[in-house]
Design goal:
About 30% of the residues lie in helices and about 20% in strands. The chain has about 425 residues and is of the alpha/beta class. Strands 1, 10, 11, 12, 13, 14, 15, 16 and 17 form a nine-stranded mixed sheet that branches. Helix 8 runs parallel beside helix 9. About 45% of the residues are buried. The structure holds pyridoxal-5'-phosphate (PLP).
């Protein structure tokens, strides 16, 4: 099921009043739901000592959301300078930040090393010599290549630009040791929106097998393995949620097996983004136009600058029309934005109840890779973000972009290279 019944029950009756105060379009996030998912995750993996989630900041980089993550004891998975800045401004300490970049620049390495540094997760063996101040604690991203098949969003590991290959992994840690590393982690990220729990169990097994191999070759002990993000959420009504209870039980057993064989086991880290916030956000927009040509179209006051996923991946996002939940889906619509791109469609040939101008439309599951992925192409600006607090308040947590924001990059000192 897309959005939870609880979020829907608390949100839908409030939407007309929220619309009056804040005006569409907006993303709205559910504090109670995010906290509940966080608590579920912690409980599921409580059998693995040192378990920790590092929230993937890119999924929903709003500071109020990040504050919730911090309050739940989570760290941050950052991959750029602005993400590092935001995590540090919220008080994240070096070991609260996993810096998982790729194609990393010298400037990024220098920034990562500031303020006591962070957990540096290197994407390639060639980067070892480029790290200006080599940290004591180092991690590498492992890419299994042909050893694993991939999934739709992230692709086959063999074709993915990320990580060190299986053949390089022992050598990577050997060279890191030569540069002074004394503490070690191992990372992988091979799934995206994965709903088959067994794929994630196999990922945990894989990363522990690689850890075992490196430990045996170099006589080191890993402090943690990081299985990455990619836990899926059901975007479609007929999809079933990830079986977290069975998954965590099987993963915990794999860690127990490692501990039984070696007398120690690394902690498990993960960096879920979508699973933490995806279902706890919705994009609310108003229907402002309808047209009937070769197809029937409903035009919203939001466009793909608010939510790129349908255009980028052909993703399904469930849609409700406020007040028409019980009405028969007797129409077939393309639900579209205003961008001059024919893929600016939130839904294609979707069965929906008849929609009139002024109807409020709720697009589900916009809580991850939604607002964050937006852009300004065609002068279409990103909408505001709201939070439905656990106590029922609705709070503006980011204003909409303005025309002044759009022109802000014209504010610079003239600079010309003479002929
Ligand atoms: C995008 C990303 C994540 C989060 O992925 P989700 O699908 O949102 O869980 C985690 N780690 C890395 C390195 C990523 O690039």
């Amino acid at each position: 099921m897309p959005m939870s019944a609880s979020f829907k029950d608390r949100l839908f009756p409030r939407i007309p009043a929220i619309q009056q105060q804040f005006q569409t379009p907006f993303h709205i996030y559910d504090e109670a739901g995010i906290r509940e998912t966080g608590a579920t995750l912690i409980k599921a993996f409580s059998g693995i000592p040192g378990f920790r989630e590092f929230f993937a900041v890119k999924a929903l980089p709003n500071r109020e959301i990040l504050k919730l993550m911090k309050e739940m004891g989570f760290g941050f998975d950052c991959s750029s300078i602005p993400e590092l800045i935001q995590a540090r401004e919220l008080g994240a300490k070096p070991e609260d930040i996993m810096f998982t970049s790729n194609n990393t620049s010298q400037e990024e390495f220098e920034f990562a090393a500031k303020d006591g540094g962070c957990i540096l997760n290197l994407d390639d063996i060639s980067l070892i010599d480029k790290v200006p101040v080599f940290p004591e604690l180092i991690c590498f991203r492992y890419n299994p290549g042909p050893r694993r098949t991939g999934n739709v969003i992230i692709g086959n590991p063999e074709e993915a630009k990320y990580g060190v290959s299986h053949e390089q992994v022992v050598e990577a840690y050997r060279r890191a040791q030569a540069r002074g590393a004394k503490r070690f982690g191992l990372h992988t990220m091979v799934a995206s929106n994965e709903l088959d729990y067994t794929y994630i169990v196999e990922t945990a097994r894989m990363v522990l097998e690689v850890a075992e191999e490196v430990e045996a070759a170099l006589g080191i002990q890993f402090e943690f393995v990081n299985i990455g993000g990619g836990f899926g959420i059901p975007y479609r009504p007929e999809q079933k949620a990830l079986d977290l209870p069975t998954m965590s039980k099987e993963i915990t057993a794999i860690f127990d097996g490692f501990r039984a064989r070696h007398g120690h086991a690394p902690a498990m880290y993960m960096e879920s983004g979508r699973f933490m916030t995806g279902p706890h956000g919705a994009l609310v927009a108003t229907a402002i136009n309808s047209k009937d040509t070769y197809r029937k179209y409903i035009g919203l006051d939001a466009c793909m600058s608010s939510l790129m996923r349908p255009a980028l991946y052909g993703s399904y996002h469930h849609i409700d029309v406020l007040g028409k939940e019980g009405v028969e889906a007797s129409e077939v619509y393309d639900v579209v934005g205003s961008l001059c791109e024919n893929n600016d469609k939130f839904a294609i040939q979707r069965e929906l109840p008849p929609i009139e101008d002024g109807d409020l439309v709720v697009i589900h599951d916009s809580g991850a890779h939604g607002h964050a992925m937006g852009f300004q192409y065609n002068g279409r600006l990103r909408p505001k973000e709201l939070m439905l607090r656990a106590d029922g308040r609705v709070e503006l947590i980011r204003r909409a972009e303005t025309v002044e924001d759009y022109f802000a990059t014209y504010n610079f000192e003239p600079s010309v290279l003479k002929p």
